[in-house]
Amino acid sequence: MTTSVTELLYVARDPAWAPWAVQYFFLIGLSYGCFLLSVPGLAFRREGWRDLGRAALLGALICGLVAPVALLSDLNQPGRFANFYLRPNLGSWMARGAFFIPAYVGGLVLYGWAALAPDFRAAAGLGGPLAPVRRLLGGPDRPALVRGLGLFTLAAAVAVALYTGVEVMVVHSRPLWNTALLPAQFAATALMGALGLTLLIERFVLAHDVLVERRLARLLALVLVLVAAVGALWFALALFVPGSTEARALAQVAGSEVWRLNAIWLAAAVALPFVVAVVKPAGTGWLTGLLALNAAWMFRWTVFVGGQDIPKTGAGWYVHSLALGPEGLLGILGTAGLCLVVLVVLTTLVPWSGSATVRPSTLPAGA
Amino acid sequence: MDRSRRDFLRNIGRVTAGAPVALASGTVAAVAAGAPAPVHHWAMVVDVAKCIGCQACTVACIMENRVPENAFRTFVSTYEVAEGDVTRLAMLPRLCNHCDEPPCVPVCPVGATFKAPDGEVLVDGDACVGCGYCVQACPYDARFINAETRTADKCTFCAHRVEAGLLPACVETCVGGARIFGDLADPSSTVSKLLKERGGEAKVLKPEEKTRPNVFYLGLDERFAGRVDAVPTLWRPTEQRV
């Protein structure tokens, strides 16, 4: 006997986490990823990592300062943010995150200041309208302080990476989110995006150095392998472990053409920069950087917005179009604009030595 | 207080206009005397065979609770089931399940969502930051962000009415008497008796979530207990306005 069920009446639910949430998770991921990249060169003075570290620090600061704005904007009652501290429910990962974020951002700013203090002092000596501010911020080179602040910020960054992943992972009602692999996926794609951003900053904002670009390309290739490996593990669990949360998630989206396209896009966005980074690591940083950023953003968009398009009890999928206002496209553009403003402020105020200077002589012939 | 609308009307002789006041006064007197306040365990039993899908409950809830456009605290999802040559309609009234293990409560970062002593899962609208975490955590899609208050919103079992000795609006208005509301802590209540007599038949939605719901369904087709595998039709009222 053939049986068919048609849902005649069900109601659509709006996503509770708007594109602002995607922006937050994207930016905070880029920030802690960039910060991690800066640690070897700036906190531990590792040979050959200094310029890479400075480019990464700039990326960490831009995204780290803008991310909390995106997070506040995602609240429907942003004026009540003080409730996170006045009446915290510390059993909630979101409440814990409310303490991790200021620790991380505060630590990052102090770490950045300590690392750049000698440059501020040197730049103040050159005069100019910003000299008083730079004099105020300038100071001697204090490796122990930079290392100490770096280690504190490292702990906070790990806490942020952990909370952003686990906060979503614990949502049992959504199989797509409720996988133990999600924190690893967020962290790996955050590193991927951070390498992409550092490649772009190194290429277009600070002094371009082919050696730095090659190192970043190698790192990106490694991280892309890690991203692909975690993705492959997710698919393996989904395909070969019946009843697993991954299998339930795959079953929910398997019939969707949109999800199939998203999967192909993401796979291509990981494979393509890998091939380019391996085959031609010099001179292609702008391309691999953009592709890595795109993949990191797409992953979060797919997880958050796509995940919320799956009804928990109804059939089919909720269909939402991106709103054009502040809750949608304007919000995304707004965070991008804010990043640009912070970039302008930081590159104006902070003496990133050799900024905006491309040194073609460092390019190898034919690169 | 008694249970379904029909029971309620049957007992109208006893439940007079002064009853809510008497109930409230009694509570205050008991507390004042140092006696423990009466504790209820509110629950709802939905007899799906009696639901005719009229959506009177949906409308009553919207009117009672000023639920904004495109949002619902309760509604009746409706399915057409074709088996061979026979086609029938299946109704499933949905609402917050007021779980005993509510996944929405522990995730709330500011403790605005809480389990009331009488069993309702409620939201302190003055504390809610509108983060939407509880909306994500609810396995029943029973929560939403109220576009007007900008806070989490959901069915409260009409706590304001129940406190006044009245029935929830959806129960009050249910044409077929499909929704039965009452106190599981009272063995003589209709819900207690129903669950005792027809306990084997009573089901909850998504039992695998282990949320221990307080909304029970009699005559529920297993196919509708979880995410329904069906040809979809989603309804967004403002998109179908003529």
What's this model, at a glance?
The complex is a heterodimer of chains A (367) and B (242). Chain A has helices spanning 19-43, 50-74, 83-86, 93-124, 131-137, 143-169, 182-204, 210-240, 245-253, 257-279, 285-308, 329-349; one strand at 3-9. Chain A is mainly α and 367 residues long.
Characterise this structure.
The complex is a heterodimer of chains A (367) and B (242). Chain A is mainly α. Chain A has 2 domains: 184 residues; 147 residues. Chain A is 68% helix and 2% strand. Chain A contains 12 helices and 1 strand; from the N terminus they run βαααααααααααα. Chain A starts with a strand and ends in an 18-residue tail after the last helix. The C terminus of chain A is likely disordered. By secondary structure, chain B is an alpha+beta fold. Chain B has a domain of 150 residues: Alpha-Beta Plaits (2-Layer Sandwich), CATH 3.30.70.20. In chain B, strand 6 and strand 7 form a beta hairpin. The longest helix of chain B has 14 residues. Chain B is globular. Classes of the chains: A mainly alpha (367), B alpha+beta (242). Chains A and B meet through strand 1, helix 3 and helix 4 of A and strand 2, strand 3, helix 5 and strand 6 of B.
- Helix fraction bin of chain A: 55-70%
Pair with the biggest interface:
A-B, 52 and 58 residues
CATH class of the domain at 5-13 and 40-96 and 157-240 in chain B: Alpha Beta
Overall average residue pLDDT of chain B: 86
Number of strands of chain B: 10
Silhouette of chain B: globular
Over all CA atoms, what is the radius of gyration of chain A? 22 Å
Give me the side-by-side strand order of the main sheet of chain B.
Answer: 8-1-10-9
Q: Which architecture name of the domain at 5-13 and 40-96 and 157-240 in chain B does CATH use? A: 2-Layer Sandwich
Number of helices of chain B: 8
Shape of chain A: globular
Overall number of strands of chain A: 1
* Poorly predicted sequence stretches spanning 5 or more consecutive residues of chain A: 354-367
For this structure, the CATH topology of the domain at 5-13 and 40-96 and 157-240 in chain B is: Alpha-Beta Plaits
Strand content of chain B: 15-25%
Helix/sheet category of chain A: mainly alpha
Taking the sheet with the most strands of chain A, its summary is: none
Q: What's the helical proportion of residues of chain B?
A: 10-25%
